[in-house]
Known about the structure:
The chain is mostly beta strands. It contains one helix and 37 strands.
Amino acid sequence: MKSHDVSNSTLYLRIYYPTMKNLFIPLILALPMVVLGKDFNALKIFSTLRTVAGTGLSKDDNFWVPGFEGADPKQVELSNPHDCGTDAWGRVYIVDKESHSVLRVSADGSTITTVAGTHTSGDGPDSPTPATQVDLSNPNGLHVLGDGTFYILDTDNKKIRKVTPSGMCSTILKHAPGFFAGRGLWVSDDEQVIYFCGGIMPSGLQAVMKLSAIGELTDYAYVSPGNRGLGNIDVAPDGTLGVTSVGDHRVYRITSDGATPLVIAGNGSEGNGGPSGVPATSIALERVRGISFLPDGSYFLATQKGGDVWWVDLEGNIHLFVSGSRSGNVKAGDGFTHDSAGEKISEPRAIHWASNGDLLIVSNDTGIIRAVTTTAGPQTPPLAITKGLFNLTLSFPARTKGRYLLESSTTLAPPRWIPEAGLSSESNMIFNHFVSKSGDAKFWRINVPTQAGGN
Length: 455
């Protein structure tokens, strides 16, 4: 059991129930957690760097050989990886552009396998087909759901493909204008909404596009991307979109109605960043590409030519998180803290807040995936069940007025918190939940309401 002080905080529990046959047992789960509140500081809850996959020696080419299948991922030469994601088990998915594939690193980090693509450029069938028999062509976008479903931006084929947990691949959208340089792709947990960076016919301009479950495709919001296109997309807990613009070196926030985008980071100039602790809109974020939100609404950014990873707090101030190089094959700092002196990464293309709480960094030009390990909460990924009972013991100060409130939501984009129970005001609580539905994904929080005169 794990105890957490959640006074003056909100405790988010991210719990997945992926479909898995013949597993009907009671269990106790160790859950990934992030404790968020007025004192939350991402600079303090992350610690050391480690390598997840890749040698850091790659250039622009297809390096895949049959001997890499099932090998140690840290001994495999990646071929311009462009994005990554994680499922509920903590398995890391990598879209490896030049090898025309999606690769998966096992939860224990010991093996890497192909889960989509044939490692040969081509345009595979659109109808349901085993994913490892479907040719892809320079895929550079990826979104992974908790149950292992993942979506691929099959760039040169101008398609978005879906791969199910059983490994079947099918095309869900053919977008004739293409995707240009962007690899932005985001899918809601219920798969009812997809956002991606795509071209507009006949203008040739680029915009954030929205695809609904009923097949309706709309130009959701236009962002001026200069001559190098848009970058990545992520959705904040309040449902707004964050989109990076490589061409004008800025980051935009787009509201749920697709209104005029608001600049939230970057001053539009080239250059190598600036001081920490200043407004995010005041510094240079050269070719900013990566973006990843935390559940409290703060977010990480990665600048390809700036070479760094940054964190933007809730006040809109930016802080250097990992220092990197503007070019070259820098791979340093494994075992050292993220804020230690010296360059540790180079030209990051994408970042992803993983299901175990780590921050993953994709260095495209060096062909390597790095992780900054979190110190907040247990590292054990959730177990997959169809039915069962879990419990968790939390400790927190007693309240003289009111009770702690347990709420749940099926998504964080945006959250739709539903009260589940008013918890005891005592200092300990055993949290029990019976799982009766498979294929589910749910977020829980213990809300600590502010009450005048109480504690």
